[in-house]
Amino acid sequence: MSIAALPLAVKLSCCGLLALCVALAYFGPAPARSVPRQTIAALLAGSVIAWGIGVAMVSARRPGWAALVVCLAVLCESLAAWMSRSRRGDGPPGPASSPPDEPAPEDWERFERAFRAYDRRRGRERTPA
User: Fold this and answer.
1) Closest Cα partner for 77 from 52, 38, 47?
2) Three-class SS string for the chain?
3) For residue 109, what pLDDT is reported?
4) Could you tell me which residue, 122 or 21, shows the higher pLDDT?
5) Per the confidence metrics, is the pTM higher than 0.70?
6) Close Cβ partners of 24 (under 8 Å, ≥ 6 residues apart)
7) Helices 8-27 and 63-88, interaxial angle, to 10°?
8) Spatial distance between the Cα atoms of 121 and 109, rounded to a whole number of angstroms
9) Torsion of Cα atoms, 33 then 35 then 36 then 41, to 10°
């Protein structure tokens, strides 16, 4: 497979697709749900392996296949970057990650009263720290 034999439109569309994937990974909306770290690590490990295979294919004088494998590595890295954004909270929050409401001040007063009543019932003598 030779990259030079491909029409210019195919080459430009592949470049555009890669650029779009990278841009969406960093500037698009964050995933609605959190993704396990193992999934992100597996994607990154796969991309490192793909980069190694791409380098091996270039040394074996297979630049067309090497370009295909390196494109796959870039797509894996973009997907991992997009998935990791759900943990950092970049982008607009999804429905599953909306911040919890703050309790009303009356709740804290009720908590304080309940805690003091518990402390008195327990009857343990306090010692200063």
Assistant:
1) 47
2) CCCCCCCHHHHHHHHHHHHHHHHHHHHCCCCCCCCCHHHHHHHHHHHHHHHHHHHHHHHCCCHHHHHHHHHHHHHHHHHHHHHHHHHHCCCCCCHHHCCCCCCCHHHHHHHHHHHHHHHHHHCCCCCCC
3) 83
4) 21
5) no
6) 78, 82
7) 20
8) 19
9) -170
Residue 74 near residue 18 (C-beta atoms within 8 A): yes
CA 91 vs. chain centroid, Å, equals: 12
Instruction: Pick the range with the lowest mean pLDDT from 63-67, 69-73, 84-88, 102-106.
Output: 102-106
Tokens 């590595």: give the residue. Answer: 73
What is the CB-side half-sphere exposure of residue 126 using CA atoms within 13 A? 5
